[in-house]
Amino acid sequence: MSEPLLDVRGLGLSLPDRSSRRAFGKPPLRQILHDIDLQVAPGECVALVGESGSGKTTLARTVLRLYEPQQGDIVFAGRETTHMSELELRPLRARMQMIFQDPLSALNPRRRVGEIVVQPLLSYGRLGAAPTAAALKEKARALLQQVSLPPEFATRFPHELSGGQRQRVGIARAIALEPDLIVADEIVSGLDVSTQARILLLLRELRTRLGMGMIFVTHDLSVVRVLCDRVVVMREGRIVEEGPTADVFANPQHPYTQALLEAIPLPEIDASWLARTEFVVN
Q1: How many other C-beta atoms can be found within 10 angstroms of the C-beta atom of residue 185?
Q2: Residue 123 domain-assigned?
Q3: Total domains in the fold of the chain
Q4: Which of 42, 106, 159, 200 could crosslink 100 through cysteines, CB 3.0-4.6 Å?
Q5: Angstrom distance (rounded) from CA 167 to CA 202
């Protein structure tokens, strides 16, 4: 068996409890994540599922070291990142990217789409010391084409695009550095069903072509069923069940997983529905 791309062992995280009514001093810490073990293989898509407040987004951000845990170990691409400084982390950050839930707030409203998608390349010097305007324009066009957006969108501002189009801009920015791992945080939750299907089809195609590992944070179990290889079910900051997607759906072991599946009206899923979805740019 190959070495996992991401290997998390015994992870624990506490954050300040903002609900505390202390008049003076720092707020007390509240434990959010408890003894988490999580592995992601190269090219694998792992779903983190659970109700709101279960800790799935916090876990996803912690493995990217947007939070520094108090307990446990995070190993990414064979390197211990648990307590790395930001300077040490910088080279690795190019290899792990995030797509945020709300693309409108995640994209700079003062920058045009073309500038947004090439910014990671500029930050890491991937286009040379002084790239020409023509080179930047061409790279922006190429990135937009990878996510099935017209090249002329490079001159638009984020507010001029639809929600699905903005989300594809976020995806283009995330894949610009060709990362090994992408964290997608509830990225289809605010989109209509047809737009969701196009985004999911795009993600699946990009995974296949670029060989990226992915952590897919969602509460939509029907999405998990068609996109993800493995499911990790979280409740109150703990993992209560995990396994191959088909196995968890066919035979959930934990009562909480059973309740999640029973609470959401899941039709009889046609496993090939996503493959037949027509990808149309709107």
Answers
A1: 20
A2: yes
A3: 1
A4: 106
A5: 11
What is the C-alpha to C-alpha distance for residues 268 and 266, in angstroms, rounded to an integer? 7
pLDDT tens track for 87-107: 999 999 999 999 998 888 899
Q: Calculate mean pLDDT across residues 158-174.
A: 93
84: part of which helix (H) or strand (E)?
none
DSSP H helix total and E strand total for the chain:
10, 10
What confidence tens digit (pLDDT) does each residue in 229-269 have? 999 999 999 999 999 999 999 999 999 999 888 876 545 55
Distance CA 13, CA 239 (A): 14
Residue 249 counted as domain residue: no
Q: What letters, b where the CB count within 10 A reaches 16 and e where it falls short, cover 83-99?
A: ebeeeeeeebbbbbbbb
pLDDT digits (tens, 9 = 90+) for 26-35: 788 899 999 9
Give the range of the structural domain holding residue 142, as residue numbers without chain letter: 105-178
260 lies in some domain: no
pTM of the model: 0.88
